[in-house]
Amino acid sequence: MSQGQSRRERVVEGMAIWGSYYRENIDEFVTDYLGFTFLKWFQLALLVMMNCCRTFVLIAARGIGKSFLVAIFACVRCILYPGTQVVITSGTRGQAINVLEKIQVQLMRDSTNLRNEIDLEKSKFSGQDAKVLFKNGSYIKVVTANDYARSNRANILIVDEFRMLRKDTVDTVLKKFLTSRRMPAYSELTDAERKAEYAKEPNESFYLSSA
Ligand SMILES: Nc1ncnc2c1ncn2[C@@H]1O[C@H](COP(=O)(O)OP(=O)(O)OP(=O)(O)O)[C@@H](O)[C@H]1O
Ligand SMILES: [Mg+2]
Which atom of ligand 1 is the closest one to the Cα of 60? Predict the structure, then answer.
């Protein structure tokens, strides 16, 4: 960092450096920033794998923490990538809301930093329009997986208990959510540079099911 920078510029530059470091090392973000030191090594490894795959399928034993892990992952992405739209869906609304409950009941209880990131006044953890809003413009929304869910858009689609859904619903309704990208303003870039940046960030989908 150069001498002539104001304090604000130094803070912004520091944030940019740490932001990109944590985007590449979300296992460290989860322990350092969110303070979840209780995760097992295989759970951290799964988080890292989720972060580098466009499509991720996890079939694992009951109660091993699939929904819990995906709740953590959704929060991480919402914090590190402002303006991210996450849609959580499942065969029944209850199962999808279950993921939001984990955020409210367990994750927010254990992490002051996570509580500070979430806009509590606008978030709703139950009911028809259940949604967690972050102060940086990201959100996590619950959508029931049926024909009426059309018109929703997401950068990250999470399908919990996907084997309970019809393939037809996944293909014709849910996958179509992923048609718009996250598009930050990047005011200092040219149009071509902006396009190149957007191309680096494909939309992603996650499918979970118990074995
Ligand atoms: N490393 C951990 N330390 C402490 N508790 C944990 C850890 N991992 C998971 N848990 C707890 O295990 C609980 C069960 O996890 P979860 O409901 O996500 O499992 P699941 O795989 O989705 O199960 P199901 O197949 O029934 O849907 C979580 O609510 C969480 O409290
Ligand atoms: Mg589950």
Answer: 21
